[in-house]
Amino acid sequence: MTHHTRLVEQLQQLDGKGYKAYKIIRGAYNFPRFTLKIDRVQGDPFAKPSQCRVLIPQNIAGFPAALYANHSRAVGLRDFLTRQFHQLAQQRQRRSGTGNSGLIAITQPGPEILERTAAFIDDEQVELRFWVGLPARGRRIDGWQAADLLCEQIPQLVEGLLYAQLSTQQLQHHIDTHEDADWLRQQLSHQGLVAFVADGAILPRRSGIDRRPLDAATPFQSPASLRVEFHCPHRGAITGMGIPEGITLIVGGGYHGKSTLLKALELGIYNHIPVDGREYVVTNGDAVKIRAEEGRPVTGLDLSPFINHLPHQQNTTQFYTTNASGSTSQAANMIEALELDAKVLLIDEDTTATNLMIRDRRMQSLIAKDQEPITPFIDQICPLYEEHGVSSILVMGGSGDYFEVADTVIALTAYRPENVTGQAHAIAGQYPSDRTCEAGQPIGTHQPRTLHLNPSALEWKGRPAKVKVHELREIILGREAIDLSYVEQLVESGQLRAIAAAILYLHQSPPTDLNFAQAIRAILYQLSTDGLSALSSFPEGNFVAFRRFELAAALNRWRDLNLED
Ligand code: ADP
Ligand code: MG
């Protein structure tokens, strides 16, 4: 390993040379209190910044082992360190220079506490992975500034990450909140619940693009008949609304907070930071948001539980399209979630295909069953729960047809929930919908699909395909873009990066004798034991944990996907 003073000399000697000469600084450098590793050096001042790591030995970092004693606590601590680094890097004064000169950046965390490859901790050391914009004047190396950046500013930043420098109270609270939320999520199934919304939770956000809690929002208050109490390991007693397994309807007038509640439940698969307002809103981790998504491709999927007898005799037990309709896309989203064993389906009337959700008596009389390819969800929702244990939570303010089938009906009035199950059932008795059940093919008998990744789609002239990610919208894999803008449970672009890496990984070590769902489970299992870093031989700093559903969602939206049964 090279001594840090040698790095200073090297950088000063590089001053004024062409930018490419920076390449020689790749390597490991010994500083008095940590090691700096420069893993990748950028080719020009405007290119993706250079990737670095700092490794701080625990005798300097000083984190008590109790702070990372189990997986849950370790993830909370790593998340906290990433935020701390992000904040310190943001607060710095950045000197001027070409392109990314002088930048220090780490993956930017949102309100979710997630496992990321930005920070690691064990008994030996703390490791942080970040990017540095090596300074330039024009296209020439600014060696003096580089020396200041790498050998003065980074060491200063490292000092701010040591345990002694952190607010122990804030750190402790962050980790405890995260561990409590994990604990609550585990308790749900023991109590026959699929979700819990704590009293006092703040559900609405400031805006569609600002995910901080809305100021002056009405705090959540559970209705007495759905109230449950838990004793969390750290926080102690907590009360709130428990949503039971089965079929739950959320009803209420327009603008009374239905979609806001559902959104909070969608994201309750993740834990949130203490100031978020939703830190004690937890949902079963296998809950999947379902929506219509016109235009998406569908590859070899058995849609027959929902769609049969299409005009022109198209086969719906192995359905292909490059451009699904609203109802077909929503049916595909459901079947794909069930293929990966989703336990809860979350559906909002705002984003569904009405003809897949309801078909009332009048429509049944006008359009005979043999002229309607669609089996509406209302006729599959009961077998789904009774035979397969899959619960549904539906926001449905516009139709009372689901009253008959609902186990729980929650009405929102000015954001206040009320349990109106009894009333809804009484109304269903008084005004029967008189529908004829149109059950289609039973759900859950679908043929497993087999994954065949198309090698040419992932290679370009013998080299691995280029991978790019555009925010939360899409993954570009070689020639193809995978549109993920309607996969609503993705929250950080690092998840898309990790998913893209997982697809390449599946391609490089193709699973043998495994069907589509098994191959996805196998890779998730491997990541749960080896960590996300296993996705790449390079020490990537911007992978963020994802679920099997979102990996499947990306593969299912990839137009180069090959599947057979
Ligand atoms: P719905 O789906 O019932 O039509 P939304 O969930 O879209 O209603 O909410 C309507 C508006 O009310 C949104 O602007 C949302 O931010 C706001 N809102 C939701 N819940 C609350 C709350 N608890 N306190 C204050 N405003 C809220
Ligand atoms: Mg709504």
Automatic annotation (TrEMBL):
Record domain MRB1590-like C-terminal: where: 466-563
Domain of life: Bacteria
Domain (ATPase of the ABC class N-terminal) ranges: 6-163
Occurrences of domain ATPase of the ABC class C-terminal (ranges): 168-446
Protein name in the entry: ATPase of the ABC class
Lineage: Bacteria, Bacillati, Cyanobacteriota, Cyanophyceae, Acaryochloridales
